[in-house]
Specification:
This protein has about 200 residues and is mainly α. Helix content is about 40%, strand content about 5%. The relative contact order is 0.12.
Length: about 200
């Protein structure tokens, strides 16, 4: 549970064009607390995105808008965020203990390179006499990245919902738990039960 808590608390949005990140309720500030804007949220501004805090048509902060909307603490934090010169989409990263930033692509790379999970491929590599195909879809070798990201079972999920990066992490855990139930106990689980278990962890 401590690892899950650290995963949730360390999630942050890296601002590109700001179009896909809401100003409130989304962790995007460079702070070691929850990363969310603490300024009181006016009802008529509840759905504005970070792009509304930038000069129209430019990749720079609109200081006048910042001062009008945010308190001094939030303004200073926002001004510390460098904006890319080109139009890039917003993305997720994690702040680890000590302040190190880790990006999603790096996490996938680590999973792929290190063989972090005891998949069937990992067992076969250790000379266990076993069919290395995915026990769910039978359409490929069961590698770390296959079971968590490319298996046909994953297509039952629409994980690209608004600001649900943390949910993706919980979903990966739930998928792996469901996989183990099936492989070792032959207990199947529906996509609904997997999603529900991930939601309960949030």
């Amino acid at each position: 549970m401590a690892a899950l808590r650290a995963f949730r608390e360390g999630a942050r949005r890296k601002i590109g064009n700001g179009l896909n990140t809401t100003v409130w309720r989304t962790p995007w500030l460079p702070s070691l607390d929850d990363g969310c804007v603490t300024t009181h949220m006016p009802d008529h501004l509840c759905d504005i995105t970070v792009s509304n805090l930038m000069v129209t048509g430019e990749q720079r902060w609109d200081i006048d808008v910042l001062n009008d909307i945010c308190d001094n603490k939030d303004v200073e934090l926002i001004k510390r965020i460098p904006l890319p010169l080109s139009d890039k989409v917003d993305s997720w990263f994690w702040i680890l203990k000590g302040g190190r930033e880790v990006y999603y692509a790096e996490l996938l790379s680590v999973v792929s390179r290190r063989g972090c999970l005891p998949t069937i491929q990992a067992l076969a590599f250790k000379h266990v006499n076993i069919d290395a195909r995915c026990p769910w879809c039978h359409n490929g070798v069961e590698t770390d990245t296959h079971v968590l990201f490319s298996c046909d079972f994953m297509r039952a999920f629409d994980i690209c919902t608004k600001d649900q990066c943390v949910f993706i992490g919980m979903l990966c855990w739930s998928i792996w738990h469901r996989r183990n139930k099936w492989v070792w106990e032959k207990v199947n689980g529906s996509a609904f039960s997997v999603r529900a278990a991930a939601t309960n962890l949030l």
